Model the fold of this input.
Amino acid sequence: MVATCGYFAFSFLDTDWDWTDVIWRSSLVSMGFGLFQSPNSSSALNAAPLAQRGIASSMIAFMRNLGFVVGIALAAAVWYSTRNRYALAHQVTPEETAAQLLGMHYAYLVMAGLVLTGAIISFTRGKATQSSSPVVVAEV
Done:
């Protein structure tokens, strides 16, 4: 939720921004991810059977990296498509400040929505239950 607030606050940056405007917003995003990542990873890792925790750990790292890559690609796609659409509608170049700013606003709003969705899914997924029968992993 804290990271969502940071991304949402980023969507209000304007052309007269100061470096302090970026610092406190970045701090919110970083603090939010810091508070979320460790408990979420621990919960996911503890849900895996003991014999498969190594695989679970690598899957957590893979999914985290995949999320970063897809998030950057999605943000760039939203930013560029929004600024280009604005530029076409107003007969200006996509590099115009107003076009860039609108693209940035929408990219941060989409990121805020995705982070909020991920947090809601994480908080509502429930507790893991331990099975009574041991899991046997065959070695190959």
